[in-house]
Design a protein that fits this description.
Length: 251
C-alpha cells in the first residue's frame, strides 16, 4: 500500500509539472516561438554586425596617433604617425596639438563607423521583416565612450518588434569592444605633459608602475621622438610622435 501511494504521488507531481509548463508556454511573453529568442535578439545582431569594424577603426587610429588621416605627421616604418606635441624652434618645448585627445579620438571613431552602423540597422530591419515581424525602427544619435578596458558605442535608436500578438521593445542599443585604448591614451597624455615641460619623458617610470606595459622611445635624426605604448597581455598598441627641444644639426 505504501509503494502504491508513492507511485500515485509521483504521477500527480508529473501531471502538475506538465500542466505548469503548458500554462507558462501559452501565457508568459517571450516563451512562445513568435517572439525573438535570446540567441537572435537585436542587440546581439548589432554587436556581431559592427564589432569587427569598430576594432579595425580603433587599431588604425592607434597606429596613426589618434587620427585616421593625420595632417601633421612623421613617417615611421610605413605609418603616418601624428605629432601630438610639436615645435619647429630649436631649444624650445613642444606645444600640444590635440588638447582633448580622448574627445578627438571618439569623434574619429564616430565618423568612421557611422555609415557601417546605418547599414547594420538597415540589415536588422530587413532581417526581422523577412522573419514575419512588424518592425518599427526609430533612429537617434550615436555617441562613443572610451572607458577603462573597453570602447562603447551607444545608439539612441528604438526598435519595436511585433508578431503573433506579442511585442518586444528595445529603447537603446550599445556595442562593446574590449580594448584598453582608454588606458593607453591616458599614458600618452602623461608623456606629452613631460614633453611640454622638459622636452623629454622618462619611460621607465611608466613600465615600473604598469607592469604589463611596454614603452618604446625611438629618437629620430631631425629631433622627433616616436613613442610606442604596448600592452604585453593583448598586444594593443598606441603610437604617436613628439618634437620637443630639438637640437640644431651637429649637436
Amino acid at each position: 500500500m505504501e509503494k502504491k501511494g508513492q507511485v500515485t504521488i509521483f504521477i500527480i507531481v508529473a501531471i502538475v509539472i506538465i500542466v505548469a509548463g503548458v500554462l507558462v508556454y501559452f501565457f508568459l511573453p517571450g516563451i512562445r516561438s513568435g517572439l525573438v529568442s535570446d540567441e537572435e535578439n537585436p542587440p546581439k545582431f548589432l554587436q556581431t554586425c559592427l564589432e569587427d569594424r569598430i576594432e579595425e577603426v580603433v587599431q588604425q587610429l592607434s597606429d596613426h596617433g589618434g587620427s585616421m588621416n593625420p595632417e601633421h605627421y612623421i613617417i615611421y616604418e610605413g605609418d603616418n604617425i601624428e605629432y601630438l606635441c610639436y615645435t619647429e624652434e630649436y631649444y624650445e618645448a613642444c606645444v600640444v596639438q590635440q588638447p582633448l585627445l580622448g574627445n578627438h579620438i571618439s569623434k574619429e571613431i564616430e565618423r568612421e563607423i557611422k555609415e557601417n552602423a546605418e547599414s547594420c540597422f538597415d540589415e536588422m530591419e530587413q532581417k526581422y521583416q523577412n522573419d514575419g515581424y512588424t518592425v518599427d525602427l526609430k533612429r537617434g544619435d550615436m555617441n562613443i565612450e572610451l572607458l577603462p578596458k573597453r570602447v562603447i558605442v551607444n545608439f539612441e535608436n528604438s526598435l519595436n518588434l511585433a508578431k503573433g500578438g506579442q511585442t518586444n521593445n528595445y529603447e537603446r542599443f550599445r556595442v562593446v569592444l574590449n580594448n584598453n585604448l582608454y588606458e593607453l591614451i591616458s599614458i600618452a597624455t602623461s608623456i606629452i605633459e613631460w614633453e611640454t615641460r622638459y622636452g623629454d619623458a622618462e619611460t621607465t617610470v611608466y613600465m615600473t608602475y604598469y607592469k604589463d606595459l611596454k614603452v618604446e622611445k625611438k629618437n629620430q635624426i631631425e629631433g622627433s621622438t616616436i613613442y610606442i605604448l604596448t600592452d604585453r597581455n593583448n598586444e594593443n598598441k598606441f603610437q604617436f610622435a613628439s618634437r620637443s627641444m630639438p637640437l640644431p644639426p651637429g649637436y
